[in-house]
Amino acid sequence: MQENKLAVLKKVAFPKEHGSWGFVLEPLILSLLVAFSINGLIFALSAFILFLSKQSIQIIFTNSGPTYLKSSAKKVLAIYFVVVILFFLHLISNTELILLIPFTIGLMLMLLFLFLDHIGKARELLFEFIPAIALTSMSISIVLMDDTFSFNVLVFGILLLSRSVPTIFYINAKVKEAKGKYFSPLPTLMANGFFTLIVIYFAINNLLPALSILGSLLILFRSMIGFSKFNFTKKVVQIGIAEFIYGILFVIINAIAF
Fold first, then answer.
1. Which pLDDT band, with edges at 50, 70 and 90, does 54 fall under?
2. 13: domain range?
3. Which of 62, 86, 110, 209 could cross-link with 257 by S-S, CB 3.0 to 4.6 Å?
4. Residue 123 DSSP class
5. Same domain membership, residue 211 and residue 110
6. Residue of 224 and 237 predicted with greater confidence
7. Nearest CA to 25 among 52, 57, 54, 4?
8. Distances (CA, A) of 193 to 117, 200, 218, 219, 231
């Protein structure tokens, strides 16, 4: 029996991995909060639409599934692409082309990740870092749109990675823990410690606001609690909710800092 139109739209237009929404939105929202511009907003919307298109692409290229679902996915994907193309035409005609380079690099990386996802390789830990790098690159383009931003954009990109890279290690380990599989907290804690030291160094040298240290310490504290006897995230759903909250706090702290 064919589903109603609203249910079909929800299936083909929005990715099912709700935990990835925060992962995508955090760097985009933070970039807009610290360096808002209309062109930056268009960049952010383009990146988010590309993220949404993942669901339609998966349905279209899946061998199984009802025909009506694939047909709806093609229509939604066409709308997404038309909107993104229109956004790009606006950006090309209203910005210096050099400012599009970081976003274009991020776009290429996201397309690579979609291909890896299609062939079943995207879940491998090494390839999970591709979206983080892609979103950081796209966020740099957003920040570059604002001439008043007084910090080095590459340093800002490293700040974004200080949240995403340790989190990838953390989520990977916590999901294994929730499923009763072997995991090691060491990669997460090492990544957290490494990026925290870098953020502290940048803050001491006035390359980042001092308050950004608090954001990195929050993520480090998250990992230490998550792997301790005080751990309160034992299920995948709990892990996702906690990460959403930590992400909001990280964005708020750094938005205030900048």
1. confident
2. 1-149
3. 209
4. T
5. no
6. 224
7. 52
8. 30, 11, 12, 10, 19
Judge whether residue 62 has pLDDT over 80.
Answer: no
What share of the chain in percent tops pLDDT 70?
97
pLDDT of 13 reads 83
pLDDT at 1 over 50: no
State the CB neighbour count (10 A cutoff) for residue 120. 8
**pTM listed for this prediction:** 0.92
Single residue among 131, 149, 167 that ends a domain in this structure:
149
- Which among 78, 26, 77 is positioned nearest to 246, based on CA atoms? 26
pLDDT tier for residue 18 given thresholds of 50, 70 and 90: low
Q: What b-and-e string marks burial along 21-50, b requiring 16 or more CB atoms within 10 Å of the CB?
A: bbbbbbbbbbbbebbbbebbbbbbebbbeb
Q: Long-range contacts of range 16-25, CB-CB < 8 Å, 24 or more positions apart?
A: 16/55, 18/240, 19/171, 19/239, 19/240, 19/243, 19/244, 20/51, 22/243, 22/244, 22/247, 22/248, 23/131, 23/132, 23/135, 23/164, 23/167, 23/247, 24/48, 24/51, 24/131, 24/135
Smallest CA-to-CA distance from 240 within 163, 136, 170 is with 170
pLDDT of residue 10: 83
